Amino acid sequence: MAAALLVIDAQMEYFEPVGRWVVRGGDEAVERIRALLEAFRAAGRPILHVVHEALDSESPVFRPGAEGVAMHPGIEVQPGEVVVRKHFPGAFTQTPLDAYLRRAGADGVVVTGFQTQHCCDATTRQARERGFRAAFVADATATRDLLLRGERVAAEDIQRATLAAMTGFADVMTADEVIRSLG
Q1: CATH number at residue 49
Q2: Tell me: the pLDDT tens digits for 149-174?
Q3: Domains of the chain: total
Q4: Catalytic-role residue among 27, 56, 119, 176
Q5: Which one is catalytic: 56, 86, 121, 145?
Q6: Structural domain boundaries enclosing 166
């Protein structure tokens, strides 16, 4: 697969002390994303950083100009790498992502980032709808606990269920497996 790496929403909104939606396992996922970035850079493969920004200037999360929209300091954008700004969960919605991927000659995407069941899931499904192959990196994504009618649903359960659902849309892989496939 001539795949491009998508780093989705690696932003401070998901990390302490800034974030309001702190994910579990975020630091470990960032380390794996950094390893993937290094491998994709060494292989000369396309890298796209997707950043979320709320449309509502009063939004409590991802508010334009707020600390939460800043990129995680462990994920630096290098010259030649594309930054795609989005306002909806799916990174293809009202963005030039599709055009960037096609111009780069990518036939697939490798999805990493935050949150597993939200923007990563939506973007993977959109990629498949557009004819791209997809790999979903299980250990380079993370999420947080959520509430369902007042009951806490653990991040680990959400992560596992989303990865199981992703098997219908993508090759669910580890970061090490993806890196080995680049060789």
Answers
A1: 3.40.50.850
A2: 999 999 999 999 999 999 999 999 99
A3: 1
A4: 119
A5: 86
A6: 3-182
